[in-house]
Amino acid sequence: MAEIKQEIDAYNRMRADLETRLMGKWVIIHDGELVATHESFDAAAEEAVKKFGRGPYLIRKVGVPQVSLPASVMYRTRYA
After folding, report:
1. Among 9, 12, 43, 51, which is disulfide-ready with 38 (CB 3.0 to 4.6 Å)?
2. Strand order, beta sheet including 58-61
3. End-to-end CA gap in the chain
4. Residue 47 confidence (pLDDT) above 90
């Protein structure tokens, strides 16, 4: 979780500029840098997975408040 916190912190540092230039776009943040912007989450996720595999990276829609999900929603249970 420490790695994703770094990406969240980087997004928060960029927030004002992103909201001025890219409101409503989906952005990918990796290694503290803005990597790409997209019109849809699906396009952003596809690029992020191709470039960075399992991450860590942050995909966020600019201008939308952060949503916290319970662990039961974030992680799928795998059955044997």
Report:
1. 43
2. 33-38, 26-30, 58-61
3. 26
4. yes
Which structure tokens are listed for 21?
Answer: 């230039």
pLDDT at 15 over 80: yes
Name residue 60's beta-bridge partners.
27
CA distance 52 to 34: 13
- Give yes or no for residue 21 having a pLDDT over 70: yes
Residue 80 has what pLDDT?
46
Q: Is 28's pLDDT higher than 90? A: yes
Give CA–CA dist 39/36, Å, rounded.
11
